[in-house]
Design brief:
Elements lengths: L2 H5 L6 H17 L3 H14 L4 H13 L3 H14 L4 H13 L3 H14 L4 H13 L3 H14 L4 H14 L2 H13 L5 H8 L10 H4 L11 H18 L3 H19 L4 H16 L16 E6 L6 H8 L5 E2 L6 H12 L16 H15 L5 E4 L8 H7 L3 E7 L2 H9 L13 H21 L4 E5 H6 L1 H11 L23 H4 L2
Parallel strand pairs: 1-3, 1-4, 2-3, 4-5
């Protein structure tokens, strides 16, 4: 044997080389080179069609690259090849969630949880799915479990904080977001969340920290600057610096308006048509004299964003016979399923549902309530968009009540203008559009209350703050429930918030 033969490097086994290539693809994915990672994985699965890990990494890279259809195909293939891998199931559930298949995501994650009951990634993704379904109590419980396993897992802290906001547990929310800041994660979304809380409850200087704000994962520079502007306005508002806060608000709302464009005229026409139909439509309510034993009543608490619906819902839910539903999608889910069962192209608004589907919808909705309640007699829903559907809901469902919430117009206009919405609410970034929308919404409330006086009431945010106990007892009485004895919890008081801004808002 020659010396050159002795010095030759033995050939790398092709399967080991494939694993090295996969590690390279994963490192590229983690560094943000998503397309390059995809190319390596595509080459691997072409050579080794049954290489589950390559399909999995391809699915992750494609999802990171915003190609959710491609990601879904890769992750389904990976799960077929390795059905007991909790990481694959977790990634697959995340893609289902991004594609709007929330129920399928939940089912997949619960399967992953059975395999890895203490896996923080599995649990955190499951918490996100519960949160997407507005099951905030369940989500908060899961996030707390994650933090018991790993107190430093910041994604769970953020999820807990977001749930606590909806649950009205402000101190828990503040603590969760401040934990992220203390760990060095000064993302603009975290600072924005802190800017919305009462100043006396926040222990960090949001205004100073905004100079160190970081982008959230995948956030564009424009969206970063806009959200930072909203956070700046909130922080200045809490310090009583109204003029500077207003200037910041005008700037970031103008940028948002530039992104979303003009408020669509067809939306105004739709609102006018709905109001006209409400005023002239014959009143038909599917309300038995006495609901059957065990029937769950739905209490729709409706009003514009920032009107005080969540405050009222929290007060009513002091009764153990009331289950908070928040802005849950039960109506939309049931409408969509009714269309599917009738072999029709699906829709999600009940006003789009043909009358022959009423019985199917009712049956599906009853099952939906059964999955969301556990012996409670009343289930609440605060989804503001259901204002369009009140007359139809009253005619189709046998056991419903409606509470309509109003608030001082200038106060609610300001609070909407100060809010960065994640979706919809196209009116929210222009003062006149907001005011026009609120006036229309209040006209709808007046028309609906006049048409449905026996199953509805109108309350104001100002009255809720002034007499929370009395208002709560009235609302429980509307639902046939007894008053709750004991002290009524304090509610925040945001009345008159527009006073420092009134001159510039009406200019």
């Amino acid at each position: 044997m020659t010396s050159s033969d002795q010095n030759e490097t033995p050939p790398v086994h092709p399967l080991l080389e494939a694993r090295d290539q996969l590690e390279k693809a994963e490192n590229m994915r983690r560094s943000g080179a998503f397309s390059e990672s995809e190319k390596i994985c595509e080459s691997l699965v072409q050579c080794y069609p049954d290489y589950a890990a390559a399909h999995y990494t391809l699915g992750l890279a494609s999802a990171d690259n915003g190609k959710f259809g491609k990601s879904l195909n890769a992750l389904v293939q990976a799960s077929m090849l390795n059905p007991s891998d909790a990481a694959i199931l977790t990634a697959l559930a995340g893609v289902y969630l991004r594609l709007g298949a929330v129920r399928l995501a939940r089912r997949t994650l619960e399967e992953a949880r059975a395999i890895r009951p203490r896996d923080v990634n599995v649990l955190t993704t499951l918490g996100e799915i519960y949160r997407e379904e507005r099951e905030y109590e369940l989500a908060a419980e899961v996030f707390r479990q994650v933090l018991e396993i790993d107190n430093a897992f910041l994604e769970a802290a953020s999820g807990l904080g977001q749930c606590a906001v909806h649950l009205g547990e402000t101190s828990i929310a503040v603590e969760a977001f401040e934990r992220r800041v203390a760990a060095g994660h000064k993302t603009v979304s975290t600072l924005y969340a802190l800017s919305e809380f009462p100043a006396e409850m926040v222990n960090v200087d949001v205004l100073s920290l905004l100079d160190e704000a970081e982008s959230d994962y995948g956030q564009s520079r424009e969206n970063f600057e806009i959200l930072k502007g909203f956070a700046l306005a909130g922080a200045l508002d809490k310090r009583g610096r109204a003029k500077e806060a207003w200037d910041a608000l005008v700037s970031c709302n103008n940028r948002m308006s530039g992104l979303i464009g003009e408020y669509p005229q067809h939306e105004r026409a739709f609102q006018a048509q709905i109001l006209a139909d409400t005023i002239r439509r014959p009143v038909e309510t599917n309300r038995p004299a006495r609901p059957a034993a065990g029937d769950v009543m739905t209490l729709f608490i409706l009003g514009p964003s920032r009107a005080g619906k969540t405050t009222l819902e929290k007060l009513i839910a002091r009764s153990p016979e009331v289950k908070r539903g928040f802005e849950n999608p039960s109506v939309e889910n049931s409408v969509r399923q009714a269309f599917l069962e009738a072999a029709l192209p699906p829709r999600e608004q009940i006003i789009q549902m043909p009358p022959p589907l009423d019985d199917i919808f009712r049956s599906i909705y009853d099952k939906e309530l059964a999955t969301r309640t556990d012996g409670e007699r009343v289930f609440t829903n605060t989804h503001p968009g259901l204002i369009h559907s009140v007359m139809r809901l009253a005619s189709v469902l046998p056991n419903v009540r409606f509470v309509f919430v109003k608030r001082d117009i200038e106060d609610i206009v300001l609070r909407i203008y100060m809010k960065k919405y994640m979706e919809s609410n196209l009116h929210a970034y222009n003062i006149e559009n907001i005011r026009s929308y609120i006036i229309w919404y209040y006209d709808m409330i007046d028309a609906l209350a006049a048409r449905l006086p026996h199953i509805s009431q109108v309350v104001s945010y100002e009255d809720i703050v002034a007499d929370p106990g009395g208002i709560t007892d009235r609302m429980l009485g509307l639902c046939g429930l007894s008053a709750v004895p004991g002290c009524t919890p304090e509610v925040g008081d945001d009345r008159g918030c527009a006073l420092p801004y009134r001159l510039v808002m009406t200019a």
